[in-house]
Amino acid sequence: MEEVTSEGEAEAIEWAPLAWSLLSRVRQQSPLIQCITNFVSMDLVANVLLSAGASPAMIHSLEELPDFTPNVDALCLNVGTLSSDWLPAMKAAACLAGQFGKPWILDPVAAGATAFRLKACLELVDLKPTVIRGNGSEIIALSNASMGTAKGVDSSHNSMDAVDAAKSLALLSGSVVAVTGAVDVITDGNRVIGAANGVPLLQKITASGCSVSALIAAFVAVDPKLAFEATASALSVFGVAAEMGMEMAKGPALLRVHLIDCLYNIDETSVLSRSKITSIK
Fold first, then answer.
1. Which keywords fit this entry according to its UniProt record (predicted)?
2. How many CB atoms lie within 10 A of CB 66?
């Protein structure tokens, strides 16, 4: 599998086969994904990783990190229930990931909600995450703050509102930036693509976004050189599983259950026929 490096080649990628290839590699390799995530999301994050074939590890103790983090395949940091007790562990884990060449994903939950949270997210961005995954408002808040713009953020921003902010943040940080919404936007600052899979009811399931961040970590883990492509592929596969689950669900509780089952059972035909990843001009 060759790395894609130029903007012009983005449209030439056969996205659906690539998404299936990366999912197959996750299932074959079962990458170890360390998750320092919020209390609300731990259960669903772990189950989504397991259903996709990865191995979750919810290790967050500062004392354990020097022994554990160097041996993981990827790290996912989520600031949803951020506290001054957990922030040093997040920073230490990110530093270790960088030191040992491990990809890591930042999920900047509610990045602009408080000064403490925004400052913490900016400090984590400075540690060079491989991927930053957030909603439109979170990405706009980080982008504005990174550029020194003290501009308020409307919590109703959708993913398409944040395309320019995502590109700016990607260029400033060196990270792949993913903005999730009705259409997920993925950019490395030059290439911009959209993944249009998923269902609106995912918004009614707590930690669905946190879980897809962890799934991105698993996809990136199997080929860190393809972080851009792996991010788009993970978002599409997660969305396809949600679409399949929605065909059986009557509400958010059943969608949660069927999402996990469908991610576990998803096959090549489903990925190839349903995946919707295209370039955004």
1. ATP-binding, Kinase, Magnesium, Metal-binding, Nucleotide-binding, Thiamine biosynthesis, Transferase
2. 11
Strand order in the sheet with 184-187: 55-57, 32-36, 74-78, 104-107, 131-135, 176-180, 184-187, 192-195, 277-279
Tell me the C-alpha distance between 260 and 274, whole Å. 17
User: Which residue positions in the chain have pLDDT lower than 70?
Assistant: 1-12, 147-158, 281
Domain covering 29-279, topology: UDP-N-acetylmuramoyl-L-alanine:D-glutamate ligase (3.40.1190)
User: Domain extents for the chain?
Assistant: 29-279
pLDDT at 13: 82
Q: Is the pTM of this model over 0.90?
A: yes
Query: Distance between CA atoms of 249 and 201, rounded to whole angstroms?
Result: 10
Residue from 114, 178, 125 nearest 147 by CA: 125
For residue 229, the one-letter residue type is: E
